[in-house]
TrEMBL record:
Localization in the cell: Membrane
UniProt KW Membrane keyword: yes
Keyword Transport part of the UniProt annotation: yes
Protein name: Major facilitator superfamily (MFS) profile domain-containing protein
Domain of life from the UniProt record: Eukaryota
One GO CC term on file: membrane
Organism: Rubus argutus (Southern blackberry)
Alphabetized Pfam families for the sequence: Sugar_tr (PF00083)
Length: 472
């Protein structure tokens, strides 16, 4: 008995050390895998930027281009883009991704996390090439659908990969690497857009779309370099290989307790023949409800409207073209910085506290912005109107920072942690599908809703776009 007690104590001590230790192979693998978020973020930032380019709109959406040229100052920036065809084009990526994620679930479970990431990389590269070289709308949409398939595979596999390969004690911070790369991708797209807008001629939009080859290539290369997760190897019966990889990623030979846990979890997982049906069982419903609710609430915070249409939004507030471009870059930088804050705080402060604090912060920002934009400022000085604009921009940045250290990264982190091994791949597919479907809902509704708010042209006429930023 004394021997057993001593062994148990030693095991507990080693287990605690294991939970905190991180090896170089884990760091490299996580960084490489998380670049899948780089591609996802770049598309989010680029698609809103490219639709503001007249040469792009003239080639692929001549109806909108002609309307904006003819109506000029007689319509608001929002109503100029109130077109279901354009909104369907933008949302097609997310529709494709919401379907592809279920195929990704099968691939991830049957062949491993790494092959799913490789497939995503191929989709990203081919889709990017087709979009950058597009000669007509059909070619453009096909490329976007392929990008959507890449998003479905990457968003399904990457969070699972990171959550499985990282020690539990620091899992939260490293898992947020995926969301950090999303924010870096958005900022990168804003910076490329800033440069593309200074290119005269008709190929600025092609440069913006072609630049996606960089994050796509980095992710594909990274997927070839990472190791497969021990969970996946054990689940597929490759026990010796799984044990070898587990030793490498933990940096110790004393991996028996964790390895036995993986074998037991794999045994239970193999008994589940229909994981999606098993998700609906009573024991799995709390995790399923939490994962779905997180995605719905994340999308309904309104963040998608800001990152997609930041340029249009700032222009309508009264900024000139250069000032609007500067503002989007600043917003993107705040997004990146706040996500880094989340990486360092999530395992110390806790998931729940971050969600609650940021929820209150985002709510107050929405209230302030709504009050300012609902006040009609008549016969006021330019300085007063500019002060309102500054307050709104500050509130937008404050809102983005709150989202970036809470609902943004935690919306992906929490679902990847709460599902058991037997339902993990299926649960992640439901998570991704819900997120992308509600992104589609927001995309199809946002510009139409803003147009119907009846934004009134300014009588003062001294703003860059001819609109009173405080009108509603």
């Amino acid at each position: 008995m004394a021997t057993v007690g001593s062994s148990s104590s030693t095991t507990g001590h080693d287990s605690e050390a294991k939970m905190k230790k991180i090896t170089p192979i884990v760091v490299v693998s996580c960084i490489m895998a998380a670049t899948g978020g780089l591609m996802f973020g770049y598309d989010i930032g680029a698609i809103g930027s490219v639709t503001s380019m007249p040469t792009f709109m003239e080639k692929f959406f001549p109806v909108i281009y002609t309307r904006t040229r003819e109506q000029g100052m007689n319509t608001s920036n929002y109503c100029e883009y109130d077109n279901q065809g354009l909104q369907l084009f933008i949302s097609s990526l997310y529709l494709a991704g919401s379907i592809a994620t279920f195929f990704a679930s099968y691939t991830t479970s049957r062949f491993g996390r790494r092959p799913s990431m490789l497939i995503a990389g191929v989709f990203f590269l081919v889709g990017t090439i087709l979009d950058a070289a597009a000669q007509d709308l059909a070619m453009l949409i096909i490329g976007r659908l392929l990008l959507g398939c890449g998003v479905g595979f990457a968003n399904q596999a990457v969070p699972l990969f990171i959550s499985e390969i990282v020690p539990a004690g620091i899992r939260g911070g490293l898992n947020i690497l995926f969301q950090l790369n999303v924010t870096i991708g958005i900022l990168f797209a804003y910076l490329v857009n800033y440069g593309s807008n200074r290119i005269k001629g008709r190929w600025g939009w092609r440069l913006l779309l072609a630049s996606a080859c960089f994050p796509a290539g980095v992710f594909t290369l990274g997927a070839t370099l990472v190791v497969e997760t021990p969970n996946s190897l054990v689940q597929r019966g490759l026990l010796e290989e799984g044990k070898t990889v587990l030793r490498k990623v933990r940096g110790t030979d004393n991996i028996e307790p964790e390895f036995l846990e993986l074998i037991e979890a794999s045994r239970v997982a193999k008994q589940v023949k229909h994981p999606f049906r098993y998700l609906l069982k009573r024991r799995n419903r709390p995790q399923l409800v939490i994962a779905i609710a997180l995605q719905i609430f994340q999308r309904f915070t309104g963040i998608q409207a800001i990152v997609f249409y930041a340029l249009v939004l700032f222009s309508t507030l009264g900024f000139g073209n250069n000032a609007a471009l500067y503002s989007t870059v600043v917003t993107g930088a705040i997004n990146v910085f706040s996500t880094i804050v989340s990486m360092y705080s999530v395992d110390k402060v806790g998931r729940r506290m971050l969600l609650l604090e940021a929820g209150v912060q985002m709510f107050l920002c929405h209230v302030v912005i709504a009050i300012i934009l609902s006040i009609r400022v008549k016969d006021q000085s330019d300085e007063l109107q500019k002060s309102f604009i500054i307050i709104v921009v500050v509130m937008v940045c404050t809102f983005v920072s709150a989202f970036a250290w809470s609902w943004g990264p935690l919306g992906w982190l929490i679902p990847s942690e709460i599902f058991s091994l037997e339902t993990r791949s299926a649960g992640q597919s439901v998570t991704v599908c819900t997120n992308l479907l509600f992104t589609v809902v927001m995309e199809l509704a946002f510009l139409s809703m803003l147009c119907h708010l009846k934004i009134v042209p300014s009588k003062m006429g001294n703003h860059s776009n001819g609109f009173d930023p405080a009108a509603h």
